[in-house]
């Protein structure tokens, strides 16, 4: 099975900073990748699908890129409401594995 | 407005069974794949099972042979029958509507979750 890894596992940044999270698949998955945001005590929210397509209603400061095995989620200007754990998920074929998550907080 | 409401969670002894339900509304249920994702307290998300709009089913290795996903399109309801439960199955279970009828798609709506606790 394809394994999903994320780095870093956690980060602390200042409001307004550019934040980049990396997701790596152990084998190529084309662009079949989604990113989710889970705020503390809340359910996950889809941010991006097809590696780079922004889900409706998601702020434009979020962007995704990548294809094959390496993907990134970028927050162009970190806001206090972006404190959350971010997960990637592959969906090219089952199992539809999630990455371990990246916890983002404010410095 | 899309709504997903899970039910059926609770405390069960190891080896026991539970059936989770997810009542859906606000969209054409039969046209979309549905999935179950779980999250142990304080841990990350774990994909459990997906059923496509046409009824194809997929399972994580950790639950294969023990869990069964199904859907009743006439009742707009998704189910997860969980047998031979283990302590490691303890988690919040979320149902999610996928973006398409295909099993491979992101989940764009999520329920609030139901807690399953497996303990003696």
Automatic annotation (TrEMBL), chain A:
One of its GO terms (cellular component) is immunoglobulin complex. SMART domains: IG, IGv. Residues 2-89 form the Ig-like domain. Gene3D superfamilies: Immunoglobulins. CDD domains: IgV_L_kappa. It is found in: Cell membrane; Secreted. InterPro entries: Ig-like_dom, Ig-like_dom_sf, Ig-like_fold, Ig_sub, Ig_V-set, IgV_Light_Chain. Keywords: Adaptive immunity, Cell membrane, Immunity, Immunoglobulin, Immunoglobulin domain, Membrane, Secreted. The keyword RNA-binding does not apply. GO terms for biological process: adaptive immune response. Its main location: membrane. PANTHER family: IMMUNOGLOBULIN LIGHT CHAIN (PTHR23267). This is IG c499_light_IGKV1-27_IGKJ3.
């Amino acid at each position: 099975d394809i394994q999903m890894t994320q780095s870093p596992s956690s980060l602390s940044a200042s409001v307004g900073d550019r934040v980049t999270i990396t997701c790596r698949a152990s084998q190529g998955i084309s662009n079949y990748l989604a990113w989710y945001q889970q705020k503390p005590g809340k359910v996950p929210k889809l941010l991006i699908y097809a590696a780079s397509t922004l889900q409706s209603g998601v702020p434009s400061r979020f962007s995704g890129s990548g294809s094959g095995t390496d993907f990134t989620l970028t927050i162009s200007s970190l806001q206090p409401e972006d404190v959350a754990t971010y997960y990637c998920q592959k969906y090219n074929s089952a199992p539809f594995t999630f990455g371990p998550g990246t916890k983002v907080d404010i410095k | 407005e899309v709504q997903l409401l899970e039910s059926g969670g609770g405390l069960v002894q190891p080896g026991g069974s539970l059936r989770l339900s997810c009542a859906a509304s606000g969209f054409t249920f039969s046209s979309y794949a549905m999935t179950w994702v779980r999250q142990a307290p304080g841990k990350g998300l774990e994909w459990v099972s997906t059923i496509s709009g046409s009824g194809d089913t997929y399972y994580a290795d950790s639950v294969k042979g023990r869990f069964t996903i199904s859907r009743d399109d006439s009742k707009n309801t998704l189910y997860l029958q969980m047998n031979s439960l283990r302590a490691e199955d303890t988690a919040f279970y979320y149902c999610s509507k996928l973006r398409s009828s295909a099993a491979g798609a992101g989940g764009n709506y999520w329920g609030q979750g139901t807690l399953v606790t497996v303990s003696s």
